[in-house]
């Protein structure tokens, strides 16, 4: 009799289904962090061959949901973990989270046309009185706040998306591409650690003074024009950023 937890007709690989089931249990706190997840236990539970079990555990380990303790087994790491590969295209974090089955949600607030601070104006090369589209986005994963982003976008004056449009699309740059044909070519990032302010603590559900990861990004269009700036504050223990350098 087929295992009721798996859908053999869905076309989704078995290892991916098993991984998603275990990930949700770990992130939701249903998995006991003191109890190892053994291959034998999972083989009995899912009634599949060993290969999809091993692949699921391998990917969960790579993404920080489980860790292997020598001679003890594989143990869950409670809480949501987000692993962002280096090849996620600029402005597409939300889509990446959705595609990997993490069920992201975003809340956009404070939409306005505003002159950016001098430091941001300098990074984008804008004029002294040039008004940019400005808003704040809070991204949550599995109903847990993950990222709070402050965003300035250099866009045509008639680009005036609503909060609902920005939340549904997940990226203002995707809307710019759809409506004006403006595409991104690359992004430059700076990252550093900081301590949560009272405002960050309230937005991300952490204690004031907790460690946070800040990633500041400048986005460039295909023609090399600076198109936007974003400062994204992440829960440090829940976000893993992978990058590649070449000589």
Automatic annotation (TrEMBL):
Domain of life of the source: Bacteria
Keyword match Phosphoprotein: no
Name this polypeptide is given: GntR family transcriptional regulator
Domain HTH gntR-type: 12-79
Organism of derivation: Nonomuraea monospora
Statement: the UniProt record of this protein carries the keyword DNA-binding: yes
Keywords (A to Z) from UniProt: DNA-binding, Transcription, Transcription regulation
